[in-house]
Amino acid sequence: MLTFFDIPSSLSRAWSPNTWKVRYYLNYHRIPYRTQWIELPLIESTCTSLGIPPSKVQPPSTAYPEGHKAYTLPAVYDATTNTYISESARILKYLDGRYPSTTSAQAFPKGTSVVVPLWDVITPDIAKMLNDESRVYFEETRRAVFQGRTLAEGKNESWEKVNKGLADVGRKGQGVFVTGDKPVFSDFVIAATFAYMRNVWGEDHERWKEVLTWDNDRWARFVDALREFEEVK
Fold this sequence. Notes:
Residues 6-103 form the GST N-terminal domain. InterPro entries: Glutathione_S-Trfase_N, GST_UstS-like_C, Thioredoxin-like_sf. By secondary structure, the chain is α+β, with helices and mostly antiparallel strands. It is 47% helix and 10% strand. It folds into two domains: 2-98, Glutaredoxin, CATH 3.40.30; 114-229, Glutathione S-transferase Yfyf (Class Pi), Chain A, domain 2 (Up-down Bundle).
């Protein structure tokens, strides 16, 4: 069984779009796992103590002569091979090789990458759903991204960009999913983005309801097709 590392919330539900990518994959392929929750400020210390590799190593700089190691989630531990893996794309590539029965719907067909620019729209709303320990850390670290402004001040109402991003994705589609009848990594990226919206804003939020109507209700059908793979174990 795998151990899947995720970030908790005060609402007792998974919310991070990065971790949802992998959770959808695990559920879709029925790979056994259990979730271990780690608060945001404890991610780096937990990863280093367990031997989980950094998700990214930035080039050397004046501040970090040996390069800066960034520790983020998701991460998984495979007890069968005593292997820790971090970063969603690396995790899915590992799982594609580790569980050959899943390769009928391999994660990374060529030409299926997608981008949905949601960051500016939703980031200011995340802090209020985090546990206190993570909320303070989130506000302090994300404020730096917005160059010293508060998260509310940094919020960019770029809803049109989200609509355009999904419309661009929709044009790639050949069915319910990006490549047809079976989901691939790009579909899990989109589904994770939707889970992010739904869990941060709530099912009744006007923007979430609006998304479901875009592209002639295409995304409502997409969400319905993946609902059964949203279990949090």
